Amino acid sequence: MVKDLSIQELEKRFQEKIDKDIKIEPNDWMPDDYRQTLIRQISQHAHSEIVGMLPEGNWITRAPNLRRKAVLLAKVQDEAGHGLYLYSAAETLGADREETIDDLHSGKAKYSSIFNYPTLSWADMGAIGWLVDGAAIMNQVPLCRCSYGPYARAMVRVCKEESFHQRQGFEIMAHLAQGSPEQKAMAQDALNRFWWPALMMFGPNDAESKHTLQSMNWKIKRHTNDELRQQFVDVTIPQAEMIGLTIPDKDLIFNELTGHYEFGEINWDEFWNVVKGNGPCNKDRIDTRKKAKEDGAWVREAALAFADKRQKRKSA
Amino acid sequence: MNKELFEYVIRIADDSLILGQRLSEWCGHGPILEEDIALTNIALDLIGQATNLFEYASQIEGGDRNADQLAFLRFDREYRNLLLVEQPNGDFGDTLMRQFLFDAFRKPFFERLIACTDLQISGIAEKSLKETKYHLKHSSEWVIRLGDGTEESHNRIQNSLDSLWRYTDELFFENQVDAVLLDDFNFPKLSEIKEDWLKNVELVLDEATLAVPDNNWQFKGGREGLHSEHLGKILAEMQFMQRAYPNMEW
Q: Does ipTM top 0.95?
């Protein structure tokens, strides 16, 4: 059936489905560019979850009390889980998990640049939950309506957990902000360091964003980078005020007319440098992931050899 | 306060806490994503057990110190955990062998502990047993898989077994604390658990084609607060926040 249709006709039918909000499923025909765009985006997302375990993992062994230790462990475990089902979603498009991971290690595939910043204090666990997971939610909630079925469904589950993460991060910050002078200073310092990188998480300005238009036509993306960034700023600033922390932006003002906050210029030079690999932790993060894979090679080989032996014994 | 009962609870709590701390070092570094999740999950169970037990120990003590103060603000000589659980993670095989030898003890221990006359301890044992059964299944499967996997994995995990074996006799260590409490509380007799433990361990090692080490020199000390060099470093890291910022809420 499919064979008989011209590419133009297939593309037309595909776009009609998209326009009618009918989900695209793994076995449906799809343009190669759509497939590649999704593989790139979903695996990038999966890598971000996995690399994102490291800056927080850095504080699990130093968490200040039993409850915080348990909550942080659970949170980082959730992220590993997100990574797993995102890799699975990418596999429905024909991407091999191990090859995808090799692309991360070689630097071919990217991940969220925010994880190239170091976690220097306990308050960073609060800032990451509050700001980084908060920004991630802004990006991800619209993805629950993404045109590709498996990705959309994975995002429904991811978003539920992310919103819990965001709340626990904010709760850490609120607690510190109401604590001793040292704790308050720790919280403010974390906000100072993570604020701008969090704004950068939405990607370049719309004028510079090369993938946005096509992705919006395909309903992979529903809002532009700048729209999402603005939404994040508008939601987050009152939260900072509520707990008595100061946003590190001298140009920040509220525009009564538009009902939006206007914020200062993002340091795009820094953004592109971190994307290119020059962030404070890019090398450490990738080296750590590579080492985990190399150190675990004998374990994976053993598991395969064992499964093979059992299979042979069964059939013998 | 019942000093012996306090110490009895602290022993179990410290085993869970220190092993949970060790396992959480793996987070983000596992050989496959599924194992990252599994090890973190076990760590989470152990930290949960420790929390319940420290809360009860705090009650026994009369509330002078809360659960966090017990977990984070004692000195090394006051910790009562086994030397086994403070041993470094090493490679994945070392970690799983340490886990297996411990889980194989914990399961029959909790099974018997449920029958004790202290309702709080019995309740914690019942909940912990459910978790421990899963932990033991997981660690046994990996010991078998690595033992009967490739030549390299076989040699590695045999080495893990050889170096950890000397910490296993301490699993059954009894002192004055047990002598005082055993009959009154119907706590498990550890020497009886040893038979069970050895039988199950040998069964798994046999399937894993691994040999029980013939070196029977055994270390002890943890149960009386005399630890290896490793514990000091674990505590330095774990207690950092509580020591650097005393008397604060987090």
A: yes
